Amino acid sequence: MMTRSSLPRLLRAAAAAHHRSASTTLLHHHPHHHSITLIQPIPLLHSHPTSLSHLHLFSTSRRVPTRAPKPDIAARARQMQTRRLWTYALTFSCIAGFIVIVLNQFQDQLVFYITPEDAINKYASDPSKNKFRLGGLVLEGSVNQPASSSEMEFVITDLRKDILVRYNGSLPDLFREGHSVVVEGFVKPFTEEIRDCKEAKSVTMKARAWDCYFSATEVLAKHDEKYMPAEVANALERNKKIIAEEAKAAEEEQKAAGAVTG
């Protein structure tokens, strides 16, 4: 087995052989001529000046094994933690956006129960949101079928404000004047034809004084004639108390005025 210490001796031997071959000639005998021709010597080694030095440097250089750099575990952990945080943030943002979109669409499709006073006020503040369920009492004597129109009309009141309702269809069997009713549809602005209908009843004049009326797509009178949503019933009870208080205050004012004149 060749060791590193034997390499210089081999190199020196190869150099000496190369030197001897440089001065050695080959004899070539021609068969027809009795003469000997000198032929160019055959070099054993290429005469590159740097080959020996490179080989010597290669043989004597110390071989140092290369080591792979140690991985930075802390940096890798921080990188993975950052990726997880970004993943959680993006997931949460997508879920929150989806919930907001669903809630907005659900809110747009909701139909709220309101009273005539609420309907008039909401239309005045934002005419674009005009789909509601209107509840209240059918004003007595307000049901009418104009000959010039295919729509029935009646007035719903919450005891404070009245609103005209127009409906194209047959009314339910439980529909009665003076009883509760719920209608679903849209608040719309009055047209001159509807406002100035010559066949309109005088009891509807108060409702025609507003800027809007209610175009019903469905008339609901469920269970019995006393059916009414809780929010509408509470509004009617509240309005009854307000009307009673106003009547009592007016009566007291009349008594006070009579006492002064007396």
From TrEMBL:
The chain crosses the membrane at residues 85-106. It comes from Heracleum sosnowskyi. GO terms for molecular function: heme binding; kinase activity; metal ion binding. GO terms for biological process: cytochrome complex assembly; protein-heme linkage. PANTHER family: CYTOCHROME C-TYPE BIOGENESIS PROTEIN CCME HOMOLOG, MITOCHONDRIAL (PTHR34128). The keyword Transferase applies. The keyword DNA-binding does not apply. Pfam families: CcmE. One of its GO terms (cellular component) is plasma membrane. Keywords: Cytochrome c-type biogenesis, Heme, Iron, Kinase, Membrane, Metal-binding, Transferase, Transmembrane, Transmembrane helix. This is Unc-51 like autophagy activating kinase 1. It is found in: Membrane.
